[in-house]
Records
---
Amino acid sequence: MKFTAFERKLQGTGASRRLRISGKVPAIVYGAGEPATIELDHNALFHAMKKEAFHSSILEMELNGAVSQVLLRDYQMHPYKPQVLHVDFQRVDSTTKITKKVPLHFVGEENSPAVKLDHCTVNHVVTQLEITCLAQQLPEFIEVDLSGLTKGHSVHVNDIKLADHIKVKVHGKPNPVIATPVEPVAEEVIVVAAAPADDGKGKKKGKK
């Protein structure tokens, strides 16, 4: 994905407030050289941030006619307005090693024995993984194949097929669960006995 940035000359709280009022977003780019303060068009940025790839892939930033590769590293939103307040980007090159969270895309769930035969639902325990790799090798997402999922068994990190250059950070957990089938809850049927019929004489049939 490509976006256009503009050099930001004025800094400080007051300058940032004026930028936001004018429909701009203050931002900074760091790494691989001197930090650069920039500004972005808010509407263009807001719509770009709705796309998953903007958060998890290398972006091409055009600034003063030059294009550099960057990653979205952090952003701040207004507490209750749909407004981006500030964005941080990191420059990357072929030697930059990064640690970043990448979304998981689950496929084959509806064809798994757990769903088709045993009518389970599948609980996605985690929806993203934190990985370490070279920036140039960063995947936009990681695919998790659930087509072989069976009742009573879960999919773990070690079950995911990853390229050799990708290392998952599990933070002390040896093999975390990624997805697990949940058996359907059996419905409890309550049988209510019918009341004896009245014979019209004030007596209940079936009683002497």
---
Amino acid sequence: MTPALAFMSRLDDTDLAAIARRWSECNFRHNELIIAHGDSDRDVFFLLEGRARVTMFSEDGREIAYRDIAPGEIFGELAGIDGKARSASVVALEPTRVARLTGAAFRDIVINHPTFAWVLLEHLSAQLRRMTDRVFEFSTLVVRKRLILELLRRAEENGSVNGQVSISPAPTHSELAARISTHREAVSREMSALARRGLIDRRGRRLILHDLALLERLAAKKQ
């Protein structure tokens, strides 16, 4: 399956010029907060360089990671649409440059640029489908299957060669735990089991997935 194109890469030159004329750029350091959960501002952001993560924390301090944001992606659009408080935080995973569009400018572009509005609808549909899949996984699947599905999603983003995928940088066990709603210890146990079967292998900063077909069968197998 071909990975989805970044939001900005699907816009035409007219739309790109329209948003670039009205945005302002800013930089964030590693681990710096870009958006805070509960904030009331309505600005919409586009990630230009670096990486960021949409996340929340439970009352006991456990991180729940919703998605990672890559260059060319839009974020903060929900508050720009409905005017409500921020539903999650966004933190920079490395030195990051973003473009910031005021809520008023965002709404004006949506109204006056139908191609932009359609790409936005496609983006929101993809996010909703992804969230639906994750709710199903959290509600019905054991940790092992949730972990394998998350690894397969990351493999899809990187592309395979002869049935193998190299994921770089390799996600930490804490990162994976945050993505599949479990604890680091559970991820460590399942990753060790996959490694013993020869299905994954960590090499420095890379995580190698050796047999995507078998991983897919394990994810689909009745538990």
---
Amino acid sequence: MHQIALIGAGRIGTVHAESIAAHPRLRLACVADALPDAAGRLARHHGVPAVDVETALSMPGIYGVVIASPTPTHVDLMLAAARRGHTVFCEKPVDLDLARARAAAEMLDTMGARVLIGFNRRFDPHFAALRSRLADNALGAVEAVHIVSHDPAPPPIAYVETSGGLFSDMVIHDFDMARWLMDAPFTGVFAQAACLIDPAIGAAGDVDTARTILTTADGRMCTISSSRRSGYGYDQRIEVFGERGLIRAGNIARTSVEEWSADGCRSAPIQTFFLDRYADAYRHEIAHFADMLEGAAPLIDHHDGVAALALAEAARRSMASGRMEPV
């Protein structure tokens, strides 16, 4: 079994700890966090030691490092882990500063580092099946992509204040999905955004509602609808249009039961929490990391992380300028 050091004992770190512990080829070896109490709680739950970061990176027998700490620590931890020869799985985004992320990517390349970036939606079975149909040329040439990503409700304002903003924190998942589905580089970004849901988000210097258009050099487009509040559940839909029609992946209901009567159809509401909607994706993501530890190439690496961050930066510039901005 491959021994894994986990850095970060917050919500997403807890998810990864459970996935590691459940995987037959992996063993959680230790947990580190800047908050010792958080590390201690998660470590005790899994029966492993809570250690500091330096100890986690240098512990004998460690084969892989999972980084689920706050975004500003990602670059330094990736580089430190790579210098020790570890295979690295790092949560998104790579960083909040594009220049710093690009410089880190060059250093990781120089070291020959093996890095997986945590864009978990590529591992969702529904979206992966959609992508497989595109790869099989089911639509012919892809002409347009439409992505809807609306959260059920805004996150706590303390989270918003340190998140890096809507585009880098939330929409960055959709930027990565757009690149994956279109399979061509985007050259321009036009974004409009506003604070329509929670005035506290605006007071923190952020927005909560956005519409973004990404364009390729040959004029193909992806539109992204983003909102911190849907009012009806965790709305995650993708539609891809091509020369032979449409392929779509819809929302996932809590159950598949439907009740039909003279008044029409009643069905279960859609899921309301990202950890429920993407539970399979997180498990498949860790399974891919296990494959990487045995030689597989990463499906999403640090260059993908930089490319998504570049789209987020262009979206912020466009929101400020009111113009289409180059990537």
---
Amino acid sequence: MPNMISDAFEPYLLRTFVAVCHHGSLSGAAQQAGRAQSALSAQIRRLEELLGQRLLRRTGRGVVPTTEGELLLSYATRILALGETVATRLKERTVMGTVRVGLSEDVAVTTLPAALGRLRRTCPHMHMEITVDHGDALAQRWHDGLLDVAIGVSSVFAADPVRTWNVPLYWVCAIDDEVDPALPLDVIVYAEPCAWRRLMFDALLAAGRDFRVTVTSPNVGVISAAVENGLGVALLPADNINPHTMRVIALAPAGNAALSVNYGLFAVPRQTESIRATVELLSEGFHLMTQPRVKGLSLCDTPPPTPAPAQ
């Protein structure tokens, strides 16, 4: 029996369970991990057998944890975080120092803060000064030498990025909203300056769609709330789309056009161990953010390229 219990808490089984709960589906977790859905399903069954409990139940939109699964999810998250902390504490050298990080407001939502939170847990002696701002202001802070690492729209930075990614953008509306093609389209936009806003307007003009701006905000939380409450259509990356409250739509005749914005990760040339650790974790987090995880892709069904060193 002791061996059975210890086997149940194998990190790879717990990571699979946490990932499936996070995505709300086996297919979403498998796609992000780059693995077969059947392999993840087998791991979940193995975990349920070892614990003697049913951990997930199916719904019309995927899977959700059972009561026992919710309890395991709480502990599994803490177990995995503790494992990362222990592994780091046992390293020969302790990562120390201060790193000044800048994140573009439109992407500083879930994945990137999670990456920084992981860095905080694994490198407790490192101090981070994190600034979240819109692209142009962030680029200016970089130009003024006030940041060590930054992620923002590549075109506004007068520097060469360490890594670049194309972030696919999806047209979304409220899950119960119906878009009437005969009426002007209500759109929800970021305040200027914003690359997403310009991309949206250009695409709508090219599609011959009449539109009117209903909500303007510099805050992604306001944009998401406006979409969820049926105030209009917005362009959002997969990481910002809540499948329980939002729906991905196609806006003909531009249904085959792929919309994306190029983002870069910028880092100072002379890097301390703290800066290198930050670059590594943010690169991993941003790569996960760009993976297509939205069902019913419309205008952005071209998968993003694997991040590579910028030339």
